[in-house]
Amino acid sequence: MRNASTPVTDRDPRLTPARPDLAAASLRGLVEAPLYVEGTVYRVVHATAPMRSEPSPEAPLTTEALFGETATIFETTMEGWAWGQLDADGYVGWLPAEALGPVGPAATHKIAALRTPVFPGPSIKLPPSALLSFGSRVNVVETRERFAVTAEGGFLFAGHLVPLEAVETDFVTVAARFLGAAYLWGGRSSLGLDCSGLVQIALTACGIACPRDSDMQEAALGTAVPFDGDLATLRRGDLLFWPGHVGMVEDPATLLHATAFSLSVMREPLAPALARIETGGTPLRSVRRL
């Protein structure tokens, strides 16, 4: 987020829990509002919770919260919408209130598979109640043979879980697991994600804090690397930024990204990709190295 001394007119509305009619109590004295609210922390209890720009199912999807993530909610409407801020990356918007529940016991594990079913008992033949995506957080209370049992009574294959504190070592490898996944504007799950969502999920898995949108990532991540078109100067893991898009270098000849071009997460030769995107009117803007 921006520094607290930043004038309200300069605050990024995506990260600022303030509206003309109310604001978070933490912004008192910084933002003018007729009502300040402390907010209540809730946990996401659906496999994913869509965050939208307005309290309507037809409003654009701005991001998603995964099972077990938390959000601070400042208002819940009679129509079933909750306005608040995601605790992981600070994003602000509207969530379906039905997707939220009490915080409950702290998470102990996270999903390390692309997605895993939640069974009502210790059998893979039982109909699952949900499919949890990579990065979702659960509280495991016991283990029964091959299954981890959650505080809610769900049974997950223990081999698909890792301790919450576990970190991956190569975010490019993490991103490559999503190859073929659908491109979804605002998505952050294995069922659909966008370019910056892929980067955020991969970096977070490696213990690297990462903002949500590509412009935020360009401003916050790594250091700028001069690039004159010589692909040999690029390294694995370099992040390439265009206006409204981000991809990562898998090797100096290969780009890995979630793209609307194929509506999927894809791997493609870097040189033709750079030419195609520039021909479309968006030349490469910067290269950032972590």
How does this structure look, described?
By secondary structure, the chain is mainly beta. It folds into 3 domains: 8-101, SH3 Domains (SH3 type barrels, Roll); 109-163, SH3 Domains (SH3 type barrels), CATH 2.30.30.40; 171-289, endopeptidase fold (from Nostoc punctiforme), CATH 3.90.1720. Helix content is 12%, strand content 35%. It contains 4 helices and 25 strands. The longest helix has 11 residues, at 195-205. The protein is globular.
Q: What key phrases describe this protein's structure?
A:
290 residues; mainly beta; SH3 type barrels; endopeptidase fold (from Nostoc punctiforme); 4 helices; 12% helix; globular; disordered N terminus
N to C succession of SSEs: EEEEEEEEEEEEEEEEEHEEHHEEEEEHE
CATH topology of the largest domain: endopeptidase fold (from Nostoc punctiforme)
Spell out the CATH superfamily of the largest domain: endopeptidase domain like (from Nostoc punctiforme)
What CATH architecture of the largest domain do you see?
Alpha-Beta Complex
Count of individual helical segments: 4
| Overall shape | globular
Decide which structural class fits the backbone.
Answer: mainly beta
Distance between the termini: 19 Å
Query: Biggest sheet: strands side by side, in what order?
Result: 20-25-21-22-23-24
Query: Which regions are unreliable across 5 or more consecutive residues at pLDDT < 50?
Result: 1-9
User: Which whole number gives the mean pLDDT?
Assistant: 95
Report the major sheet: 6 strands, antiparallel
β-strand percent reads 25-35%
How many structural domains? 3
Number of E-type strands:
25
State the share of residues found in helices, binned by percent. Answer: 10-25%
CATH class of the largest domain: Alpha Beta
Radius of gyration: 20 Å
Protein name: C40 family peptidase
Family: Belongs to the peptidase C40 family.
InterPro entries: NLP_P60_dom, Papain-like_cys_pep_sf, PG_Endopeptidase_C40, SH3_16
Keywords: Hydrolase, Protease, Thiol protease
